[in-house]
Amino acid sequence: MMGFDMGIYERKQREREQRKSEILDAARKVFSEKGLHTATMEKIASEAELSPGTLYLYFKNKEELHTSLSIEILKRLVKEVHKVVKLDISVEEKIEKFMDVFIEIYDYDSNILINLFHLQSGETLMNLSDDVLKEIKKYSTQSHRAIVDVIRQGIEQGIFIDEHPVALADILWASYAGIVLWVDSKRLLNNKKDFVKSTLRTAFSIIGKGIKKV
Question: DSSP secondary-structure letter at 123?
Fold first, then answer.
């Protein structure tokens, strides 16, 4: 009887995760087309072919749903960063690979990435559940720690300048976030071509040279 109950529970958990994944796919499409402010839970429910009430069983509000997409990007970032860490290449090459990962994540979904960078300074955090906040912290910490470890190795090998590895990792990440937000805001204001990726490559080239010992 116990095994039967566990089987039902596991099936329901799989069904719940599948439904949640379908909602996230629908939300990504609606947010991409409508933007955060214009999108509604009703539109997302319609895209997912569900009732709005069903959406609220999975997500507190559209801000939490939008943030859940940011968590998905963070998970993707962590996965790709750890792939770089495991590569049998020099620390300098790993820093260059981090740049490739950052650009790939931007290409994957720039709108959701921009939302992720806005989270720390917006009122959105006040509307999120504790579980969502914990996830953001968890995956942010994992990606940051991996970058710190690579920089620390470079310092220990005498390749990078002898500065605090956390500070250098912060500079790397802050440059990523700052450039994405700043250049994107310029693009929106001036309706110009997207120069985020080319600016990121320039910035990382400068940072890569700057952290090396002369």
Answer: G
pTM, entire model: 0.80
128: left (phi over 0), alpha (psi -120 to 50) or beta: beta
- Identify the CATH number of the domain defined by range 63-210: 1.10.357.10
| 32-42 tens-digit pLDDT | 888 778 889 99
Own/partner contacts of 96-100, CB < 8 Å, gap of 24 or more, are 96/204, 96/208, 98/147, 98/150, 98/172, 98/204, 99/200, 99/201, 99/204, 99/208
pLDDT at 60 over 90: no
Alpha carbon distance 165, 22 (integer Å):
40
Domain boundaries 1-59, corresponding CATH code: 1.10.10.60
